[in-house]
């Protein structure tokens, strides 16, 4: 009610990406990331999102967020939702070339 009285809306944080658990992917995708066997596969990403601008791409594998391993989609999304819009998170990502990189991304408000 306080937000309504002040005419403010709730801003939910988002990466503006679609992720799936690695084990759900076809065998060819899973093999591309071996020996890594856990993480979240980036299935889609908004081209103009801060995540895309920071270098995250469809086909990448997210292996950790803020130093914590990423295994389950629901836990990852709950972690994102626990943050504030505009807050910066750090992702460790493996590309299909098996090279690991670290990205700092500011969460988008929805």
Itemize the secondary structure elements and their pairings.
Layout: H1 2-5, E1 13-14, E2 17-21, H2 27-32, E3 40-45, H3 50-54, E4 61-65, E5 68-69, H4 73-81, E6 88-94, E7 100-106, E8 108-109
Antiparallel strand pairs: 1-8, 2-3, 3-4, 4-5, 4-6, 6-7
Main attributes of the structure:
110 residues, alpha+beta, 8 strands
- Report the total helices: 4
Assembly type: single chain
The beta-strand count equals 8
The percentage of residues in β strands lies in 25-35%
Low-pLDDT regions: none
Report the mean per-residue pLDDT as an integer. Answer: 90
Overall 3D form = elongated
Rg result: 15 Å
Q: From N to C, what is the helix and strand string? A: HEEHEHEEHEEE
Distance linking N and C termini: 19 Å
Helix share bin? 10-25%
What structural class do the secondary elements suggest? alpha+beta
Main sheet specs: 6 strands, antiparallel
Please tell me about this protein's structure:
- The chain has 110 residues and is of the alpha+beta class.
- It contains 4 helices and 8 strands.
- The strands form 2 sheets. Strands 2, 3, 4, 5, 6 and 7 form a 6-stranded antiparallel β-sheet that branches. The protein has a two-stranded antiparallel sheet with strand order 1-8.
- Strand 6 and strand 7 form a beta hairpin.
- The longest helix has 9 residues.
- The protein is elongated and about 55 Å long.
- The model has no long low-confidence stretch (mean pLDDT 90).
């Amino acid at each position: 009610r306080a937000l309504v009285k002040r005419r403010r809306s709730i801003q939910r944080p988002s990466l503006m990406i679609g992720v799936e658990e690695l084990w759900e992917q076809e065998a060819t995708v899973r093999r591309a990331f071996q020996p890594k066997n856990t993480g979240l596969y980036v299935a889609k990403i908004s081209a103009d999102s801060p995540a895309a601008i920071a270098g995250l791409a469809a086909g990448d594998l997210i292996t950790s967020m803020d130093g914590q391993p990423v295994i389950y989609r629901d836990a990852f999304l709950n972690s994102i939702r626990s943050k504030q819009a505009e807050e910066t998170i750090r992702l460790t990502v493996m590309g299909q070339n098996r090279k690991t990189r670290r990205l700092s991304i500011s969460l988008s408000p929805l």
